[in-house]
Specification:
By secondary structure, this protein is an alpha+beta fold. The chain has a single domain, classed as name from scop (3-Layer(aba) Sandwich), CATH 3.40.1690.10. The protein is built from 3 helices and 4 strands. The protein has a 4-stranded mixed beta sheet, with helices on both faces. A hairpin with a 6-residue loop joins strand 2 and strand 3. The longest helix has 20 residues, at about 95-110.
Length: about 110
Amino acid sequence: MSLGSRLIPVWSNPMSNSDSTRGDNSKPMQQAVVLAYEQGEYAPRVVAQGRGVVAEQIIARAKEHKIFVHKSKELVGLLMKVDLDDHIPAALYQAIAELLAWIYRLENELDRD
């Protein structure tokens, strides 16, 4: 499998009310971010992000297409601050590189089975 073109969904479980910035006591929301990486680009870009129902739809679509989804509350929190279509900041390069390597290893293991 080539990493020439790649979508990378990252999500977090619903935030606890203490983590929510909405200021009410309603049900906590899930968050999701999708990164895209094209060979030749200097860094992945944020191509989708959402909370609540939108996050649930992002995750559902990824699973429908058998795209690995990484769960990380901390990483999602950082990526939600990146504007759509912007490249990830340099401070996240290492974390995203490790995530890409993890996905690559998983896919190679599945290909061997």
